[in-house]
Amino acid sequence: MGNLTPFDGITNARDLGGLSTLGGLRTLSSVLFRSGALDRMSERDRHRLVNEMRVGTVVDIRTREESDGDGLQDQRLLPEVRCVHVSVVPEGRIGREPFPDGRDPIALAEGYFVNLVEGAEALAEIIGIIAGAVSVGESVLFHCAAGRDRTGLVAALLLGLVEVTDEHIISDYIASNSHALTIAERLRANPLYVAQSADGIKPVMLRNLTMIHFLGLVGDRFGGVDGWASRVGVSDEAVSGLRRSLVPGQATQSP
């Protein structure tokens, strides 16, 4: 997993390269990035994203309400980049409905699974957008607010589809722990997120058990991430494109 040099105003950012697959290969670096929101990025951060990392597509998976009310916050911040907005959760839910914060790892896993089922159409669209972009050689950054939960869900799906091992899916997931303090500070500064927590937003450490249980639920219900993707309409072409772009050689190895 490629830890990125810290940004000035973007938290919890990392490269999804260097992760081991079941076939003994590794995901390529500089293809797929994940992070928290971009609204505090500096001019130096912008230059780095566009000119050094060469991000061609940004996918914002927050609600419209979180993204300036219209889902276009990123496009205004990065007019030279293709920015796409697709919310994983229904509008109006953030800040109004409680969501497990990780202190109960099983409840958090079950919350992710609810997002997976209820947000199936949006998640399939997100995967299709990302697959299409990387298939034509673009680097992609996807993010939510903290870059932890919704982003962690999308990352787990993408990595599962390219056959990254469960061990490395889990290691990527809990890498957000190194940003726990900053994440809590950022969320506390926004009344929308504070309203969602009855006892205040505190730093919470993610647990391996959460992702283990989530992947187990996906396996039990759908037969794995591939089975889920097939059920919700993610095309074979999208999956093949992800594999060709993130793990060259895998498409010819896979049955």
Provide a descriptive summary of the structure in words.
There is one protein chain. The protein starts with a strand and ends with a helix. The chain contains twelve helices and six strands. The relative contact order is 0.18. The chain is globular, with a radius of gyration of 17 Å. It has one domain: Protein-Tyrosine Phosphatase, Chain A, CATH 3.90.190.10. It is of the alpha/beta class and 255 residues long. Helix 2 (73-77) links the parallel strand 4 (55-60) and strand 5. A six-stranded mixed sheet has the order 1-2-3-6-4-5, with helices on both faces. Helix content is 46%, strand content 9%. The mean pLDDT is 91.
CATH class: Alpha Beta
- Rounded to the nearest angstrom, the distance between the terminal CA atoms is 26 Å
- Sketch the major β-sheet: 6 strands, mixed
The average pLDDT is: 91
Give start-end ranges of low-pLDDT stretches: none
Number of strands: 6
CATH topology: Protein-Tyrosine Phosphatase, Chain A
Structural class: alpha/beta
Spatial arrangement of strands, main beta sheet: 1-2-3-6-4-5
Q: How many helix segments?
A: 12
The helical percent reads: 40-55%
> What radius of gyration results from the CA coordinates?
17 Å
Percent range for β-strand residues: 5-15%
Tally of individual domains: 1
Q: Going by CATH, what is the homologous superfamily? A: Protein tyrosine phosphatase superfamily
Q: Could you name the key traits of this structure?
A:
255 residues; alpha/beta; Protein-Tyrosine Phosphatase, Chain A; six-stranded mixed β-sheet; 12 helices; globular; phosphoprotein phosphatase activity; Tyr_Pase_AS
